[in-house]
């Protein structure tokens, strides 16, 4: 699948450089002390748990960044359902290079596959509806790119990437400012003065705040921690004047009922902060 726009060559280069530096520093001494420099070997990436595989393209990039002479043969692409025993790829080349990148590749793929698998499972509950499943900014520092990429691989939709690409006025912004009306007016003035193209979303906690956000003419209204009955009334009030987003305390079993309210999006932090890693391993080909 096509990489999301935030997965740039520059971002990948920085991420991989920092991760390798953290792990190797002045040398992988376990490998340097026991593996001959000219030894060529192969290793297979073995799936040990049913999953939606993710991080294959990233693994290729990591291998080739570390050692351009490594050959990677991919058998299973990102987003593919896998079974125990499947071989996702085989990497061939310097045994030293394979060993020095093994854990880095596995850490990324295990985490990304866990997120993609969970996302696919939750998103399957929304099949047949117009509601889209969103992730959030509840991500691991310096690993957000990979986690949001995994959500996309799993069939979910990415919310804003960071603080810079959308204005989201949450409860603290509003409480510090005094009201939704004041906060939105200031945000609109800021966007105009700085000539930025940024959508404005407002978090609301009750129907009175929903009406205030409607009057303020924002791009999206978040319905935070509302029960399904209240969400349904809120969506009716919004009546297509802007997008709507259900958020807060959402479980998998609630998804269909929430989608039935007609809400545009459902955002779920659990996709990234509560996914369990998938068991994968890189084993020598004998």
From TrEMBL:
Q: Which UniProt keywords apply?
A: Coiled coil, Glycosyltransferase, Pyridine nucleotide biosynthesis, Transferase
Q: What is its EC number?
A: 2.4.2.19
Q: How does it assemble?
A: Hexamer formed by 3 homodimers.
Tell me the organism: Chryseobacterium gleum
Asked if the record carries the keyword Lipid metabolism, the reply is no
Catalyzed reactions: nicotinate beta-D-ribonucleotide + CO2 + diphosphate = quinolinate + 5-phospho-alpha-D-ribose 1-diphosphate + 2 H(+)
* Family named by the database record: Belongs to the NadC/ModD family.
Q: Membrane-crossing residues?
A: none
One GO biological process this protein is involved in is: quinolinate catabolic process
Identify the Gene3D superfamilies for this entry: Aldolase class I, Quinolinate phosphoribosyl transferase, N-terminal domain
Q: What's this chain's function?
A: Involved in the catabolism of quinolinic acid (QA).
Q: What is this protein called?
A: Probable nicotinate-nucleotide pyrophosphorylase [carboxylating]
Top-rank taxon of the source lineage equals Bacteria
């Amino acid at each position: 699948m096509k990489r999301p726009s935030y997965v740039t060559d520059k971002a990948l280069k920085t991420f991989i450089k920092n991760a390798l530096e953290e792990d190797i520093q002045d040398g992988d001494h376990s490998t340097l002390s026991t593996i001959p420099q000219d030894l060529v070997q192969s290793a297979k990436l073995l799936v040990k748990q049913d999953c939606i595989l993710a991080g294959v393209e990233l693994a290729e990039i990591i291998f080739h960044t570390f050692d351009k002479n490594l050959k990677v043969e991919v058998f299973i692409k990102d987003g593919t359902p896998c079974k125990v025993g499947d071989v996702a790829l085989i990497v061939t080349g310097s045994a030293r290079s394979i060993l020095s990148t093994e854990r880095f590749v596995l850490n990324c793929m295990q985490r990304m596959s866990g997120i993609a698998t969970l996302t696919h499972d939750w998103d399957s509950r929304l099949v047949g509806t117009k509601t889209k499943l969103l992730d959030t900014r509840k991500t691991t520092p310096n690993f957000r790119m990979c986690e949001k990429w995994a959500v996309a691989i799993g069939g979910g939709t990415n919310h804003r990437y960071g603080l810079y690409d959308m204005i989201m006025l949450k409860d603290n912004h509003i409480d510090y400012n005094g009201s939704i009306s004041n906060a939105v007016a200031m945000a609109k003035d800021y966007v105009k003065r700085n000539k930025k193209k940024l959508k404005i979303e407002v978090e609301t906690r009750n129907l009175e705040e929903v009406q205030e956000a409607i009057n303020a003419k924002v791009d999206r209204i978040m319905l935070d921690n509302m029960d399904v009955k209240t969400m349904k009334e809120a969506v009716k009030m919004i009546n297509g004047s802007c997008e709507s987003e259900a958020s807060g305390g959402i479980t998998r079993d609630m998804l269909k009922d929430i989608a039935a309210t007609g809400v545009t999006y459902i955002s779920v932090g659990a996709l990234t902060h509560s996914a369990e890693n998938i068991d994968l391993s890189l084993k020598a080909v004998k």
